[in-house]
Amino acid sequence: MKMTSLDRTLLLVTGILAAYQVAVGIDGFGALPIIAYTIGFGVLLVAGLLLIILGFDVLDSPVVVIVSTIIPLSLSLGLVWQHASFGTWYLVFAIIGFFAIVITRSFPMPGKLPTITIAIVHGIAGLTIFLLPIILSVQGKTQPLFSLVGIGGALIGIGGLLLSFLKAGRPILSRETIFKILPILLLLMTICFVAGFKFG
């Protein structure tokens, strides 16, 4: 599917917002959250630029599943480490989950193991980014607008699952539909993250 000028514009704005978040939006955080957020938004920036330069064909690369896992895992790790008491356990999960996806994507695996692995890792990371900021906002531990991070988490979870199941050969939506909504999904997700971190 050919990328339109609008698609490229949306991806460019997404990249600018991700670059802003890396450069300015994570000042004052602890060391591990800064590393985790930098990785997450940095990968988002690079992914957006590759899409602009190479078009949607870059999504045919087998690396896409791995890259689409790094973003939610790193962002959810930063949130958990910053705001929850089980940061060390989540760090272990993030490392194991990432390597599980790398292994199941790199070597032929029987049955539905690769799909199940993706669903579990993406599901936990996506739910963490979605629920934790909203719970913290409701409890009054953060400003109400921090819940926007949770909305961004829901959007990244949707995008990641769409791409992962497409690559696994079990698409939830048609390839054309996924490519049509992906740029706006990435932009809305990034806006929610940047606004949530800034005003929350």
Give me the strand/helix succession.
HHHHHHH
Number of domains: 1
Mean pLDDT: 88
Please give the share of residues in helix.
over 70%
- Supply Rg: 16 Å
Q: Please report the number of helical segments.
A: 7
Beta content comes to under 5%
Low-confidence stretches: none
Strand tally is: 0
Please state the structural category.
Answer: mainly alpha
Task: Tell me about the largest β-sheet.
Answer: none
Shape: globular
Roughly how many Å apart are the termini? 38 Å
What does this molecule look like?
The chain has 200 residues and is mainly alpha-helical. The protein has one domain (5-199). It contains seven helices and no strands. It has helices at residues 5-25, 31-54, 63-83, 87-106, 113-138, 147-167, 175-199. Helix 2 (31-54) runs antiparallel to helix 3 (63-83). It is globular. The mean pLDDT is 88.
